[in-house]
Amino acid sequence: MIDGIPIGSEVEVYRNIRKGTYSIRHPKTKRVIGHANTISLKDVTFKVSEAGRQRVLRDKRKNVHAIVRGTLLGLWDSPDPICIGDLVKYNPYKNDSFVTEHSGYRVFAASIVVLTGKGAIVQKW
What we know:
By secondary structure, this protein is mostly beta strands. The protein has one domain (10-124). It is built from 1 helix and 10 strands. The protein has one helix at 50-59; strands at 10-16, 21-25, 32-36, 38-48, 66-76, 86-89, 98-100, 106-107, 109-116, 119-124. It has a 10-stranded antiparallel beta sheet. The mean pLDDT is 91.
């Protein structure tokens, strides 16, 4: 158990721009159950609500509409650990899904992901 969240729990994670960290929420209740700078997940899916994205484009105001869902492996306070893998990001003004930073390939799932201050680093596809 880390910060009251059991390892192996199914969680949803999103970037909390106000706190400058990640918010971790329960996938069924959508209630925030913790925060962390770095999170490791397995069996990951990347989800973007198109309706939420359209609200951002219309209102020019961010809202929580993009999440990373997976099984919790670990949490750290360090915002930028050394990780090797493909960096995946999401920008509602440029893309309708998560994409790899350099090639722009759309990403919907991965085996292992580490969420850092730089973005999502895919360890295994």
